[in-house]
């Protein structure tokens, strides 16, 4: 028998068959030891007699696989990667080769090719840190994890005033039950206005989720020991969510909202490259690309089936729809000056004489800055009539006592109850 390198299990099998050929054991004993049928043992015995050790070795051992891709395909794939996808990881590169070049190559095969060509560096296994596992929510819309990520999403295609690459913020929410990206939006920052624009578009499209899980960034929660009990310290975001009856849950660490954190890790790789391939360099085009192309494709690939069928998003009521501009407005308070002006952001606003509610000086007024950048003054559910003054008003010695629903020199008509009232004099 020729000297053929055998695996350990092949050596054990050969030893059993040799003992069988030497009649040291029976067919039944050999079948038991090798966990094969007696008919199979008989076939092996005949093959070993005829071909020797080669009968126990797979006939393709040492030969190229029937499924091995030819060198032409390998060379074409690696050339494309060098030219267009040099910083893509193997999985994403495999997807793009199939999508744009009709070349399907298993990501693991491509990984080995890229390592061999020094286009990819194998990574060491990450050190695993313990964290308590939390079961997903049951229904779509039960819990939305929300956060923002500053990154050079458009690389060097979007520049600041100094000609440097501009960092912008991507706001995104991911559903806890399904892993779907429910909404995503590029903006210049993670401020109140940007967040309000995000959630206004969200509730108009999908409805109101039961709860939102986010971090303790100042936009969402004041990090003050008395913030829970003192309603005056609630942030603009908390006030808006309270009006919509959406529970706000604040995470104590980034790991607690790991689903959205991992999402941004994936997007900072995939989305940046997708935007590059699409040639997108503006926030407006980026938001359209997110909505129409990227998010549907991303969800189709990475979302999961929820534990229970159903959608627990609640639709906006008619009153909420009417008040939506007010709900998603930045609110503050001011007092009415003695000349019935209100000072706000270096401007003076003069209240008109006739108002839908009675206004006195020093009255506290709610100021609403709507998302369309208009300013509105509100008192007891009424919006006040006013106009902006070109400059600071001069002090006036005499002012009207109040502003009300009619002119101050108004006289009641002859049939008014005041005129028809008669005094009765009691005589002793």
Structure description:
This protein has 4 domains: 8-56; 71-116; 144-302, Nucleotidyltransferase, domain 5 (2-Layer Sandwich); 330-403, no CATH class. The longest helix has 21 residues, at 258-278. The chain has 428 residues and is α+β, with helices and mostly antiparallel strands. A hairpin with a 5-residue loop joins strand 2 and strand 3 (181-187). A 5-stranded mixed sheet has the order 3-2-1-4-5, sandwiched between helices. It has a 4-stranded antiparallel sheet with strand order 6-10-11-12, with no helix packed on it. A 3-stranded antiparallel sheet has the order 7-8-13, with no helix packed on it. It is elongated. It has helices spanning 8-21, 27-34, 38-51, 71-84, 90-101, 107-116, 192-205, 236-243, 258-278, 283-302, 318-322, 324-327, 417-420, and strands at 144-151, 168-175, 181-187, 211-214, 247-250, 330-335, 341-344, 347-351, 359-360, 364-369, 375-379, 382-383, 386-388, 402-403. The mean pLDDT is 85.
Shape assignment: elongated
Tally of distinct domains? 4
Mean pLDDT: 85
Contiguous uncertain segments of 5+ residues: none
According to DSSP, the number of beta strands is: 14
* Percentage of residues in DSSP E strands: 15-25%
Distance between the termini: 147 Å
Helix segment tally: 13
As a whole number of angstroms, the C-alpha radius of gyration is: 37 Å
The biggest beta sheet reads:
5 strands, mixed
Order of helices and strands: HHHHHHEEEHEHEHHHHEEEEEEEEEH
């Amino acid at each position: 028998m020729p000297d053929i390198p055998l695996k350990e299990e092949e050596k054990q099998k050969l030893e059993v068959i040799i003992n069988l050929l030497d009649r040291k054991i029976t067919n039944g004993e050999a079948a038991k030891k090798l966990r094969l049928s007696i008919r199979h043992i008989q076939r092996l015995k005949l093959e070993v007699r005829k071909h020797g050790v080669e009968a126990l070795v797979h006939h393709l051992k040492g030969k190229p696989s029937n499924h091995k891709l030819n060198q032409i395909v390998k060379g074409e794939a690696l050339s494309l990667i060098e030219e267009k996808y040099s910083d893509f990881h193997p999985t994403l590169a495999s997807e793009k080769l199939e999508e744009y070049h009709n070349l399907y190559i298993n990501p693991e095969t491509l990984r080995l090719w890229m390592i061999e060509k020094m286009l990819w560096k194998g990574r060491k296994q990450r050190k695993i840190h313990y964290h308590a596992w939390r079961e997903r929510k049951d229904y779509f819309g039960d819990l939305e994890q929300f956060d923002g990520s500053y990154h050079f999403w458009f690389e060097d295609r979007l520049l600041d005033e100094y000609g440097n690459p501009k960092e912008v913020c991507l706001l995104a929410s991911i559903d806890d039950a399904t892993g779907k990206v429910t909404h995503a939006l590029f903006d210049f920052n993670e401020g109140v206005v940007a967040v309000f624009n995000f959630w206004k578009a969200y509730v108009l499209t999908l409805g109101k989720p039961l709860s939102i899980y986010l971090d303790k960034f100042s936009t969402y929660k004041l990090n003050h020991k008395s913030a829970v009990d003192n309603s005056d310290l609630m942030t603009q975001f908390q006030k808006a969510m309270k009006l919509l009856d959406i529970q706000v849950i604040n995470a104590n660490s980034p790991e607690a909202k790991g689903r959205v954190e991992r999402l941004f890790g994936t997007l900072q790789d995939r989305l940046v490259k997708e935007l590059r391939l699409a040639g997108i360099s503006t926030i407006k085009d980026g938001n359209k690309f997110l909505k129409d192309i990227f998010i549907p494709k991303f969800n189709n690939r990475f979302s999961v089936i929820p534990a229970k069928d159903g959608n627990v998003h609640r639709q906006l009521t008619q009153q909420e729809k009417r008040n939506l501009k007010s709900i998603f407005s930045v609110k503050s308070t001011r007092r009415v000056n003695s000349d019935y002006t209100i000072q706000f952001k270096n401007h003076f606003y003069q209240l008109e004489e006739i108002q839908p509610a009675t206004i006195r000086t020093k009255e506290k007024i709610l100021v609403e800055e709507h998302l369309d950048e208009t300013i509105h003054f509100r008192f007891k559910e009424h919006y006040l009539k006013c106009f902006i003054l070109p400059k600071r008003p001069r002090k006036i010695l005499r002012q009207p006592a109040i502003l009300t629903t009619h002119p101050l020199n108004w006289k009641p008509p002859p049939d008014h109850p005041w005129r028809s009232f008669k005094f009765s004099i009691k005589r002793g």
